[in-house]
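A further point concerns the way the authors explain their paired sequence and structure data. Each protein is reduced to its one-letter sequence and a matching series of backbone shape codes. An entry of this sort, consisting of the sequence and the corresponding backbone structure tokens, reads as follows:
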Amino acid sequence: MRALSPILRSLAAAGLLTLIHGCGSSNETGGGTGFITVSVTPASATVRQGESTLVTGSVTRGGGFAGDVAVSVTGAPAGVTGVVTQAPVSGSSTLQVTLSVATSVAPGGYQLTVHATGSGVTAATASFALTVTASTPAGSFTLAATPATITVVQGAAGSTNITATRSGGFNGALTFAVTTASGATLPAGLTAAVTSTGAPDSYTLTANATAALAAGVYSVLVTASSPGVTTQNTAVAVTVTAAGSLVRLDFSPCFTFSKPIWLA
């Protein structure tokens, strides 16, 4: 068996590639007629940060070539490792590539290449598409409004407190949305938004009603979401009341004056 180059031997010793020993004669074919092929199945995978996946494949020798084959994985970003193992069979070798993704790897798509090389034959490659997704945060949270009602005069604003309670180690950022109870856009003339009070997990829901908004009760839904955990919501009833009127009081013939009296 012809020895591999010092570089390939060094990589093998460092565990960065796997040597697949030839079957039958250890002599490599002359005349350049031998060849190798490599394939992986599936050709793509999605892995969350901190997890791993197993990819299978094979190396096939042909044209009389029976020498050693070195298999390695390139193109992986820092934090992604590919460990190759094989089980030789007659004329070919099955592969198992374990791809491990560290929690530090940024989510996104990465193009990896599986290389198979042998002395005296043309190297073979197979492409593999790796998609890294964000790890699933642990725990969960709940949402509550205190009180669950807001009273607003036409042309004015009102507010209530929104509190998030976390559990199970969840520490993700929350994104808020305010809709009708059915998830639709709020009616014209009514706007609402959630802002932080500055204290941890403490927020304020402020509802604004225009002067033209009809008096009545409007049901709104405050929704909070964060990647990897179940979305939570809490309902709030917004009661819009009519603005007061200016009443003129006439005490003639003694005197006359006007005083604003706001009637609910």
